Amino acid sequence: MTKLARYACGGVDHAVNRRKFLATASTGIGAASFLGGVASLSHRAVGSPISKNDYRVVVFNMHGGLSQLESWDPKPSTRTGGPFRAIPTSVPGIHICELLPKTAKQMHHLCLLRGVNTSEDDHGKGAYMMLTGRRQTPSAEYPQVGSVAAKMLHDDQTGLPGHIIVTPGGGGGRGNEAAYLGPKFNSIHLGGDKPPQNSSKPDAIAADAEARRHELRRKINEQYLSQRRSAVTDAYTHSYEQALKLMERREVFDVSKEPQAAQDFYGQSELGRQCLVARRLLENGVSFVQITHSNYDTHNDNFNFHIEQVGEFDIAFATFIEDLAQRGMLEKTLVVVLSEFGRTPNINLYYGRDHWSKAWSVVMAGAKVARGGVFGQTNAEGTEVTEGQVDHGDIFHTILRAVGVDSSQSLIVDGRELPIADPAAEPIWKVLV
Predict the structure, then answer these.
(1) Quick one: which of 96, 173, 319, 427 is 20 to 30 A from 350 by CA?
(2) From CA 116, how far away is CA 388, in angstroms rounded?
(3) What angle do CA 59, 359, 115 make, to 5 degrees?
């Protein structure tokens, strides 16, 4: 159950209802919605060959700015600490907020990065930085981590997209996150635990008629492409074929196909069922899944909101980590919990916390990340990083390295050499194994 809150920052992110926007902007899985807009079609495909591996990435995007003080880096009994206690975890000496009791039992799988400083308090810019590893600039557009993961890791033979975002209100449309990688690596949005809209064949159309229709379309495409082939026409062709493959594997998205014990294990919360979908997608070869949990922009009533929202996250996230570990999937799956920034140590007059990017936390688990550790530290009141400071660029490098991708390599696009991660940053080597 998501608690509604009033937002005082006045950011453009709050001018549009995200759920309604996604619901209306993403209807159906036809070719046009798969392409994600005309602008994305102008980018040509990357030319360099990439060797694939069987690693996967899951990002929990705590949209709005999760409070580090009410989650990963509590400061009880201090001026800034708020009302909650710190509790012990499954790793002696490591404590997290009492709002995460189930996650505390999974700490031996996690790695806390407590020294994040991105120095950007704007929602849109902060989100861009955390998902691309770069600062936003008018001179260049960079692909998000999901598109990079899909490019570097995904095997097209699975019949499923490589880049999926699970969010309330998503409905099968395509995002626009791939930049110069091209529309093939944009995301597909799922509406919670539901399969993409319009992904089943209408009963009125016979199977043989459907097959003949697509055979005719392919022949016409081949004739057209023989004379006028371009990146745009290739994108349309790929979108149609991917849509057909997705329709054939529609049951992968249906959590009702899971044994009842598995459904009970994850529970009936919206987020729990989204996590179950994510696990099914990973099992079936999807390389990147992003799960959105929002909206943590708690300028007002921060503490009551976090009781409810972090409580929902705690159950779903801990279950997901435990399930992956029990199935042996965590060794090849990187799980990341991030936001666009954290919340201020100071508590405002509305019992809220404002935007704070100078000292906050990100969590990683699985793949090549060290287990049961903490990297980085903030001072007693959480106002600044005192040890192990990292930023968005370092985290982006670390995500790639953790799934076996050399983050120092470049791709050749339209004859230009483009580094896949910011050359000015580097991996956080101390958290990698």
Answers:
(1) 96
(2) 8
(3) 70
Q: Does residue 7 lie in a domain region? A: no
Nearest CA-CA partner of 134 in 386, 420, 381, 369: 420
Number of CB atoms found within 10 A of residue 106's CB? 22
Residue spans of beta strands (DSSP E) within 98-233: 110-116, 163-167, 188-191
Per-residue pLDDT tens digits for 151-205: 999 988 888 889 999 987 666 677 899 999 988 899 988 887 666 666 666 777 7
Nearest to 363 by CA among 426, 428, 312, 279: 428
Give, as one character, the DSSP assignment of residue 85.
P
Q: Give one DSSP letter per residue of 40-52, joined into a string.
A: GGGSPPP-S----
Range of the domain at 426: 12-431
pTM: 0.84
Q: How far apart are CA 66 and CA 69, in angstroms?
A: 9
Please state, in angstroms and as integers, the Cα–Cα distance from residue 35 to each residue in 27, 177, 185, 232, following that order. 12, 11, 10, 9
**Total number of domains in the chain:** 1
Instruction: Tell how many helices (H) and how many strands (E) occur in the chain.
Output: 11, 16
SS3 assignment, position 334:
strand
- Domain holding 42: CATH number? 3.40.720.10
For residues 129 and 114, what is the distance between their CA atoms, to the nearest angstrom? 18
In a domain, 1, yes or no: no
86 is written with which tokens? 């710190």
pLDDT, tens digit, 9 for 90 and up, residues 233-276: 776 666 666 666 666 667 888 888 999 999 999 998 999 999 99
Count Cβ neighbours within 10 Å for each residue of 119-151 and write b for 16 or more, e otherwise: ebbbbebbbbbbbbbbbbeeeebbbbbbbbbbb
Beta bridge partners of 334: 57
420 Rama sector, left if φ>0, alpha if ψ -120 to 50, beta otherwise = alpha
**CA dihedral of 239, 242, 248, 252, whole degrees rounded to 10:** -110
Q: What element of type H or E holds 396?
A: helix 392-402
Measuring CA to CA, which residue among 142, 160, 140 is closest to residue 150? 160
Where does residue 161 fall: left (phi above 0), alpha (psi -120 to 50 degrees), or beta otherwise?
beta
DSSP H/E element including 294: strand 288-294
